[in-house]
Amino acid sequence: MILNVDLTSDVPIYQQIRDRIVEAIADGVLTDGSSLPPTRTLAADFGINFHTVNKAYDLLRQEGLIRLNRKTGAVVTSTDTNPLFPAEWTARARILLAEAVAKGLPAGEVLESCRSVLDSFGIKQPEDMP
């Protein structure tokens, strides 16, 4: 797995690492049981403090996407859904959609963008389902 982060971005590096790992899980690049690089190795690769990688991994652990173990390191977990996740996700989606509305994007363009992103993850759209 190759992670790309922009060290000059306004988005914090730990958030970029977290986001790229979530995308890799959604893309199927990382599956249940996949090991992630050790924090010190990943930090050295990017030339950043290992605490930055620790913060990203801890976020993923809190979200139930990875488990951390001294022996096995960081490992992707199964996609068990936290019962609170749908409400949390909806709140975050609401903010993103509000930003689109505030910037004047037409609803059709927003919906098409959402469909395109879901398609990129290989998610079946309702009209594609039997």
Topology at a glance:
Blueprint: H1 13-27, H2 39-46, H3 50-62, E1 66-69, E2 73-76, H4 85-102, H5 107-120
Antiparallel strand pairs: 1-2
Helix pairs in contact: 1-3, 2-3
Can you give keywords for this protein?
130 residues; mainly alpha; Arc Repressor Mutant, subunit A; 2 domains; two-stranded antiparallel sheet; 52% helix
What does this structure look like?
The chain is mainly α and 130 residues long. The protein folds into two domains: 13-76, Arc Repressor Mutant, subunit A; 85-128, no CATH class. It is built from five helices and two strands. β1 and β2 (73-76) form a beta hairpin. The protein is globular and about 50 Å long. The N and C termini lie far apart (34 Å).
For the record, the CATH architecture of the largest domain stands as Orthogonal Bundle
Please summarize the sheet with the most strands: 2 strands, antiparallel
E-strand count: 2
Number of helices: 5
Could you give the order of the helices and strands? HHHEEHH
Instruction: State the separation between the terminal residues, measured CA to CA.
Output: 34 Å
Overall 3D shape: globular
Total domains, how many?
A: 2
CATH homologous superfamily assignment of the largest domain:
Winged helix-like DNA-binding domain superfamily/Winged helix DNA-binding domain
Return the structural class: mainly alpha
- Low-confidence stretches at least 5 residues in length (pLDDT < 50)? none
Helix content: 40-55%
What's the CATH first level of the largest domain? Mainly Alpha
Q: Hey, roughly how much beta strand do the residues contain?
A: 5-15%
Strand order of the largest sheet: 1-2
> What would you report as the Rg, rounded to the nearest angstrom?
17 Å
